[in-house]
Specification:
Number of strands: 10
CATH topology of the largest domain: Rossmann fold
Strand order of the largest sheet: 1-10-7-4-2-3
Strand content: 5-15%
Number of domains: 3
Helix content: 40-55%
CATH architecture of the largest domain: 3-Layer(aba) Sandwich
Radius of gyration: 25 Å
CATH superfamily of the largest domain: NagB/RpiA/CoA transferase-like
Structural class: alpha/beta
Shape: globular
Low-confidence stretches: none
Length: 458
Amino acid sequence: MNNNASSFILKSDLRATDKEHRRKINFNIGKYDAAVVQGKKQFNNLSLAREKAKNIKWQAIENLDSYLEQFEDTFTKRGGKVIWAEDSAQAIEAILKICKEKNCKTLVKSKSMVTEEVHLNQALENNQINSVETDLGEYIQQLDGEAPYHIVTPAMHKSKEDVAKLFSEKLGTDPSLTPEELTLVARNILRKKYVEAEVGVTGANFIISDIGGIAITENEGNARLSCSFPETHIVIAGIEKVIPSMKDLSLFWPLLSTFGTGQQLTVYNTIVSGPRQSNESDGPKEMYVILLDNGRTNILKNTKQRESLYCIRCGACLNACPIYKNIGGHSYGSTYSGPIGSVITPHLSGMDAYKHLSFASSLCGNCTEVCAVKINLHELLLDNRKESVEEGLSDFSEKIAWKAWKIACLHRKWMNLGNGKIKNIFVNKLFSGWNNTRADLHFSEKTFNQLWKEKNKN
């Protein structure tokens, strides 16, 4: 078992038995569930909307090269600059080079999972650049020295009391402050940073091919400030974020907001198509878009897994997943958690290192049921399991266990062998760890097959 798998088992075991963690997550996801039910009412035919969105993403991914080239051509005509990064190292190198040219000492960044993926904050810190998270949830996590817990809601695992205590320890505020007062404290600190920063970094919810722009969706306005106040704006986005036309936003923006937070439309929806033009009075002087591969072409060439690139990062599958709700986002040990993270991480970061994530699923299909673009997530998890076995990544004990299981399932006499007491001893004693936090399993004295034969012996 590799270190990632061992860490996952340890962390998930601790979280699954943490009742306070479960209380907070159930409370926060419960509020989300109630809001989403209301948000979905804006669609006359929700299933059709999801199907249409999936078809648009299918078109975009199947023609990814031409759409990205179209974006680059249009964007550069307005004075923007496009950088193609094959991996995290190239992306970081490009950002650090820009920051050095601009003599950057302070950098503000809005919420972006891609910047987490390439570990941007750590790289900036190593180069004596003060990187400030301006999204409130991300700012909370940065103060606490933690990675985001959730794709959409970074501090979902924290209660208002936890945040008040954290602000008191890190910022010296009154530990009894209300959420509204805590928000004002953060706002007063962060607003000064926008003016000080030489560079602003954002992600992109969508890359719009036909107009050469990027679309950003947010609820706080911090992304708008991060990309307009500093003289230089850097966008870093995965290549799969492309959509063919600006017209597609009329479908994707409501879907993203409804499935992400239950809103009919997110508060701030912005399209940025280049640096400040000669007839414009505000905006950055320079704008760069870094198009990141970092393993995405591995998924692209896999005809079965390619569907996972349709994801719009709404986070609905995380909120629906019984595994995620029990073990939490940090247990996964990867940038992307929950069902979508378990699908894509083995292909982005190596099947050998992360195959265990695809086995951490009940395969209940709830993730597929709630996906905004109808990705067959539970089937992709099964495909990952199959691929890992075909690549020879199963250890000896796993192979023997499944071989024994197969023999038993193919031969009824083996299934009927032994009474319930023997089976109880075999399972509860041999599989150590099962009953550390659970009651013992208790098999019936006779199998259903035996009972059926006795009932119908005549």
